[in-house]
Amino acid sequence: MGRFLDAVLFDIDETLIDLQAAMGTTLQAVSADDLTHFTAADWEAYTSLFAADPQGHYNAYLAGRLSFADQRVLRLQHAREQAGLAPLDSDAARAWNQAYEQALPQYFRAFDDVDPLLDALEARGIAYGAVSNNVHDYQRAKLDAAGLQRIKVLVGIDTVGAAKPEPAIFHEGVRLLGSTPERTAYVGDNLQVDAVGAAGAGLLGVWLDRTGNPSPVRDERAVAPSEVPTIGSLGELLELI
């Protein structure tokens, strides 16, 4: 049974934009000569590890302990180590990061189910926007590069000085959409940070567990609590609202 909602907020990476695919293409585009032996399976494992960030370097960036560039390089070094490759020295790492940063935006693509859902929300008069655990301007450029200029409302971690799952960042998105938490849904691929976090902030938290294309941060042991519905694609959101 659907709920009456005035607004929907979205996570960006792996929810609206297929960042893991963009990362994988970019990693191959800027790869060093010592990766030429990689098979397709090697590249898949390498990209998955880089995207999943099991050592939590991105969280360290959110906590202010690492720069954005440093967290990216550390994720690369870990992926290289697990692939049996020597770490890059500081000069090589700096050059790699610059090449990666320049190439990555070329490959930002929205998932196929994004525009049809936004069309449907507009037809129903439901406002929408995005709340992301990255800085506003970086994510604004990402949305635009992926053809999602229609998403006007965007809250980044620098907007209110908070990161998901802190309530303040969700509430700022709600405020900008002119809604209230109880009449707003938040959809994201990270069960705890996105869906459970939004539910804790008083929103309808929705876990997007993409069928056939799981999030790199998905925990196979994860079970959504009863108050958090799970959808396999964005199109299924319409059944909830």
From TrEMBL:
Cofactor annotation: Mg(2+)
One of the record's GO molecular function terms: hydrolase activity
UniProt KW keywords: Hydrolase, Magnesium
Family annotation (Pfam families): Hydrolase
SUPFAM superfamilies: HAD-like
Protein name: HAD family hydrolase
